[in-house]
Structures
1.
Amino acid sequence: MPTRIQAAATDLDPGLVQQVMNLFQSSPPTWKSAFLSNVLIFLLGSRLLVSGLSLSGIAAAFLLGTLTWRAFGSSGFLLVATFFVLGTAATKVKMAQKEAQGVAEKRKGRRGPGSVIGSSAAGCVCAFLSIYGIGGEAFARLWELGFVASFCTKLSDTVSSEIGKAYGRTTYLVTTFKIVPRGTEGAVSTEGTVAGLLASILLASVGCIMGEINAPEAVICVIASQIANLAESIIGAALQEKEGFRWLTNDAANVINISTGSILAVLMQQLVPQSRTS
């Protein structure tokens, strides 16, 4: 068997291997390199993907991954991958307990295309704006900042919700501070809020390490994410499941939430121009 493997390896055309490597490492990324990179990564990570997404959710995630790689390269893809791993891990925490209480995500936490789209809509908009150079070089950094901020916001929201449902000792309605059951729309807990803040800091740090944003922009992402999540909790408590707002589903609320976080980060960056770097 080792002889066969060595023979197969010897038969590989070095020129072909080099072409494949050059395609993956192409800078700036192309649609072709983005597509092939995602095919390879999704095949290697299929077991993890199946644990966190439905089949249709995986298809939506593939489109997101391809778009992300095309816009921001491997660093942007790694940011989204980190978001997925941490979000899935938080969703799985004390799943049996959450199911018994009726507050667990459906399908054992395997999210569908609606959740993928709702969680990435603002990031996708920023990616398209970056790809097509809207605003020119002056705005390129802002689209990248908005992209990172949108995923910091959503991860913070997911982690705070899931950890709050698992470990929250006392859950308050954000608009009245009335004690309510875990899983109530617009409810918050100390445990969940702290966990969400830490998750946002972690993802912003990953974005900073990967060169997507700088340190001051990482701080902006964290602040914007917490403001957006507070706003979403208020909207959830005041409007969700109320007459006339049946359209305000969790996926719709997600779009509002991450869009708010992304827009806030961009606006805050414009108000603090000294934090920008060339």
2.
Amino acid sequence: MKSVLFTRFFILLPWILIVIIMLDVDTRRPATPITPRPYFSPYAVGRGGARLPMRRGRPAHGTEKRNQSRPQPQPEPQLPTIYAITPTYSRPVQKAELTRLANTFRQVAQLHWILVEDAAARSELVSRFLARAGLPSTHLHVPTPRRYKRPGLPRATEQRNAGLAWLRQRHQHQRAQPGVLFFADDDNTYSLELFQEMRTTRKVSVWPVGLVGGRRYERPLVENGKVVGWYTGWRADRPFAIDMAGFAVSLQVILSNPKAVFKRRGSQPGMQESDFLKQITTVEELEPKANNCTKVLVWHTRTEKVNLANEPKYHLDTVKIEV
């Protein structure tokens, strides 16, 4: 038994010695020094010891140019305000006319509606209407003198002049912003394209008007981008043979000509447009719009006179309805 154990011991002894020698050699080998990994702080030290966050992908602090200028976004040009002066007066179709006009104006950006009543005071109907219209607006009133209400005399003169006076007073003590003025009678129909056309008016712009002067349309005649005459059914010899709905004026022109108004004295019927435009421009300066005045974008529609023959003289209904 002992001989067997000794035999096995001497067989394993060389292997045990080899293992001991290898371990001894490994422990005597010099250890590799551990180099600490650099620590990159997410902050750079600014002036006064302030910790500033460093951006990824940028050079480390000290290698980046200080106060590096960056291109600033350019502000968008301000959209010129369109000022629409609308004379109006009490009649059965007044609210219907104003409703149609308001529905158009709501779709026009940067528009201010100046509504001027031919009355000694603001009416409740128009005041309530404007309050619900949801439009930037100004409500004015001025009565037409009785002596000027005869058939054949110019209408809405005092109301248009009141709108002009409000505009001049509004911009009297401040730098005028870009703007365009036009006279929007409440019995006309307007294409939205017309407002895009007039917004670029530099001085006075013109365009055709449909259903006016006893013709399907009237228009300025244009050659080489300049107005040279008028296609009209009535008095083509007028200096400006154009309808009130057929032109727009730059706000700056209105402010630069404070005495330019619609005249009563010496003004003949149908000559108000010419008498006004003569004060601020010449035919040569007119700016043709609407594809060189070949497109109709406004119509002098005029609501048909309503038939109220069966309306009772006294109110008989149990409720009062505003029409």
3.
Amino acid sequence: MSERKVLTKYYPPDWDPSLLGRSRGPKQVGPKVQTVRLMAPFSLRCTACGEYMYRGRKFNARKETPVDERYLSVQIYRFYIRCTRCSAEIVFRTDPRNQNYIVEKGAKRNTEPWRRGLEGELEESDEARLDRIEREMAANADDGSNKGYGMLGLGSNSGSGGAGGGSVEERNAMAELEAKTADAKREMAVADALDEIRSRNARIEKAHRDGVEVEVVVPVAPEEEERRRQEQEDAEAARRAFAFQRSHEMLEEDVEVEGAGWVGSSSTAEAGPSSGPDSWRLASIAETKPAPITKPAPVISTDMPPPSFKRQVKKKKDHSALLGIKKKQPLV
């Protein structure tokens, strides 16, 4: 097989390079024409068969560059395409003035709702545009002067100078802008509050419909929440202190009661032999068998003991006894 990219070419033996001449054809007359691949820049309908061709449809088109058609030194291009159904020729060109396209022949552009009302403005002349701008400026100036002087309680602007009138109008414009901004913020806040109330009412109604008891949670400020938390901590600390004091008092009462019982038993034992026929027998029993001594109840501490990190050395086991080895007794 031959190589795809060859470095040298084959020249036959009878080849004569002098026989090659430069061929000059006639220069192209008229606009320059190129074959390009493009997509339809807008939706259109063929006038011959009624076929709809939507935006983005690809076509093999002829691009024509007219020599004498320009707008402010911007070149205008014309494109020739064919209908996808009847092959009728459709011609459209660029419109640099309005940054758009214009259909010239063979099709009709579809209605675009977002471009309604612009057709008249596109065809508006320079004189008509200037007249319209002057009318709008005069109307705005009249409205602003009447509104501004009405707000300030002044009469006409005949006695005031040009600079003073301009400053008054600027102040009025700023005041109107601030008032509009405040109204807009107020309306937004009211709308947000209404939405929150509606959503809360909807949740409550749904819960009542499902048979679930709902508790309305009122938003609490951070300061109020911090105050409540501190009150709860103080109440818990007071409860612990009172419980600890009560436990100590109960322990002291138990010790006092046990001490009183011991004193009463000893007094009866001492007074017993002097009364009754069997006093000698009770005295002997009291001498031989002392009264039982009750131990005080252990003190229950409510607090946990602190951890101890003291090192404890475990005693080693004597494994020699398990193996049957007897240690020799020291001689000394």
